[in-house]
Specification:
Elements lengths: L8 H20 L4 H8 L3 H9 L6 H11 L10 H15 L16
Helix pairs in contact: 1-3, 2-3, 2-4
């Protein structure tokens, strides 16, 4: 049996906040849980977990539901995402391809 996964307080709070934003977006659109779940192609129970901030939900599902109700994740408009991708690609190109831990110092003091 595997041990239960623990999450930092920051992660739990961020998930809870995103879930509340999704719930608010759904209610502002006057969509029922069933209607949004159907639009997203998920079960109503999964939507309820997303809205409660359950960390076990797939990130792709959470992002899709957020997009459906109009919750901005990174940019308020879609035009900004390609720019962010380009900037990060440029920065990643400058970093080494592989990252290794620092070598330990050799203790040769006999």
């Amino acid at each position: 049996m595997t041990a239960a996964r623990t999450y930092s307080k920051y992660s739990r709070e961020a998930l809870s906040l995103l879930g509340k934003q999704i719930r608010m977006g759904r209610k502002q659109r006057r969509w029922s849980e069933h209607a949004l779940a159907e639009r997203a192609g998920i079960a109503r129970a999964t939507l309820q977990k997303i809205e409660k901030g359950d960390p076990g939900c797939a990130i792709g599902l959470v992002f899709e539901v957020a997009a459906l109700v109009g919750v901005p994740l990174f940019e308020a408009d879609m035009a900004g995402l390609p720019r962010q991708h380009e900037r990060l690609d440029d920065k990643l190109a400058l970093l080494p391809k592989a990252v290794r831990p620092a070598a330990t110092a050799v203790d040769d003091d006999f």
